[in-house]
Amino acid sequence: MTKHTYDIYDEAFYEFDVLGRLKVYVIPKPGFAKTFVSASVPLGSVHEGYKDPTNQTTHVPRGIAHFLEHKLFEYEGKDISKDFSKHEASVNAYTDHHQTTYLFSATGHINENILRLLNMMYFPNITDEGVEKEKPIIQEELNMHGDDPYYLAHRSLLKNMYTVHPLRDEVLGSKDSINDMTKEALLNMHEAYYTPENTHVIIVGDVDPSAIEQMLNASLALPDKVFKKPLPIKKEVSDTVNTPYETATFDMETPLLMMGIKLTRSTFENPKPIMNFLKYSIALEAVFSTSSKAYEALLEQGIVNDAFGVDVVFEKSYAHGLLFAETNDVEALRHALLNILKTVKKEGISSEEFIHIKRKMIGHHISAFDRLEGLASEINDYLQFGLYFHDLPAMLESINLEQVNAALRSLDEGSIALFSGVPLSTKQ
Amino acid sequence: MNLSTHKEGSTLYQTIKTRKFKAMRIQLRYFSVLTAKDATARTLMLSMLTSKNKVYPSRRLFSRQLETMFDTNVHARNLKLGKKHVAQIGIQFLNPKYTDVKDTFIEEIVDQLETMLKKPLFDEKTLSEEKRFLHDQFASEYANKDIYASRRYQTLLFKDHPYQVPANGEREWIDSITLEDIKEAYEAMLEAPLVVSIVGDSDAYLEKEVRERFRSFSPDSLSAFLVRQAFPFKEDVKETLNLTQDRVFVTLQSDTYYMDEDVWAMRVLNTLFGGSSESMLFESIREKNGLAYQVASSYQPFTSLITVMAGVSHENVEKTQALIKEELEKITQGEFSSESLDIAKQSLAQSIKKSYDSENSLAVKALVSEIFSVPLQKDVVLKRLNKVTKEDIIRLANTLKFVFTYVLGGKSHD
Description:
heterodimer, A: 428 residues, seven-stranded mixed β-sheet, five-stranded mixed β-sheet, B: 414 residues, alpha+beta
């Protein structure tokens, strides 16, 4: 077991391997009533199939990662959630583009529930009846999103940004792909992706790391090593977007505008992609946050309101910046945003802006240690890149103003896509 | 965790001292009963407090200052607690020991909160902006059909009831609010009873500063929040909107209110019925029949109502309503296992324990404990929960009456 200590903010975490295969991270939080545990596997909506030992590729229906997440909660026709509930835990899971995460929060029976979670993940019990039963439930989940203009706008924007990358696809799949799901496809994908070597287990709470290590090494059963392998994720070939601007009507009152800034492959296919993530985060936050000159000017023009925000999304196979705004003048805002980017490309951000954004990010980082679920999620995100979330202040410290301005200069007009949603009553 | 309480006139000071959080929080809560127009004026006024003030006369300058203070966060919003509107103004900040300005940070924080509260900048330009924002907020509720359906349901349900005025007021009042109304709303708020809470690793200096700088001028102390008023049966309402999924709300009246002996039993009943993913509604409507992805019930002790909400395809609305009735009937007949009752109690017990891990939740608990004389200590609360029996659940289930159903969706319901 290795202990990492961060005296500067009274934090520490422990990492160890279980049975030489599973990586576990324990973050002790004395005084907290609940313990939060998450376990993530790198199977998400961007994964399209698997290879068998003869190197033959098999493609699977879209939405399989999410469908599998649902099915792992069933064992011999019963819902495993009840077993967690009987032992002071509430369990859940979610699937996104790159991974599936299983999690529980508990106020007792921690060891037992950790074993229960991992057992549920590694030893599926999927039946044909169970698969058929799940299809209408997931169809209703898909329907729920069908009424949400913000969700639909975001999906359209991603399609306009990415031509080939499977980020274009809905995490849940489609009506047809859900209907095409089979037990065999689910089990084969499970075998290829749900391996201990691929999993990060994160435990946050008032726990004893040594006791957990001992318990897991003594009691955890792991599946045999497997022979099916994940398929490499399809790469986006172009650094430019396929559709710079699109508009659509929705049943809503206030128009919205989303802007996506596609980052080049060199930013994430890089030995230190997290450093690039931080540079772009500082850059876009300085340019578009609610304390920025740009936002102030847009407010003065009366073309934005207080529903306005920017984010940077970074994964191993893609990265982009995302801005969201509500506006009563889509055209004016669209042109204003493009002009703002042209200007900051030339002028960069000031030293004052740079310092204050870093202080903001450090404050936000330290506060994150109070929210156990969010903390586990952040730790997991950094682990995908082989880094520790706890080291963020040091990483920020190593970034200088010129690097951030270089990141801004690298933004290209061809890599920007905008999508507007307007009310049904608006004439085009 | 240590709670200390101190009263001065119509101001109640509560300090919850705990070392487990890295952030700290000071909150001021003013309590009033408002009309729809006054609630709207107050909502606008509170937004103006957080946007700028006489020391930082632009949004950018104020935001910038707070961000530089290690992402210090201020908020001011209107909430509801029973029939009371609560103006909640707060500041959340890092414990000074994690900053590079340890010696002066607390002083700066209290200064910011005091400036926000006592040096407001009420001008026409800011009022005009905030009106536009509030209009857009109401408009955006329509875009999110879950929120829109819930808002329509609440409006219809609470028509002519003492709780009918929503927390943020009503959209139709926005344009008529003047700067004079804003100033009146501000003065009225300062004259309302006040609860001040501090949560975190506080010290005597912070507590002293807070007591000296924040107090109410009200002659009144905190008074009754709760109204016991039965909801009469209302005819079902179906509204048509082109949705991919209908939203169904079914309301039951329980006659068990917040301070009643049976409130814990009613919470357990709700959890068993539809309040968790192990509940009877979840099992029946989602798992067995595959009709919904989301289905749940919630119990509101201030109104005594239980509301079931489900998102289902239009052709399955009637079947869903029938299943809701069927599952309730089972509970009235005792057709549920001891295991499922235990699971419901465990689920609630977990929620209770976990709520002690949140600064905001601790502040609310301390407040509610003081106002309603209910226990704060976890063990006492859990004991009351554990005492609930199967007989209690059956007895209470037999007091539930269906009073109202609202459905939004479908191209046509006929």
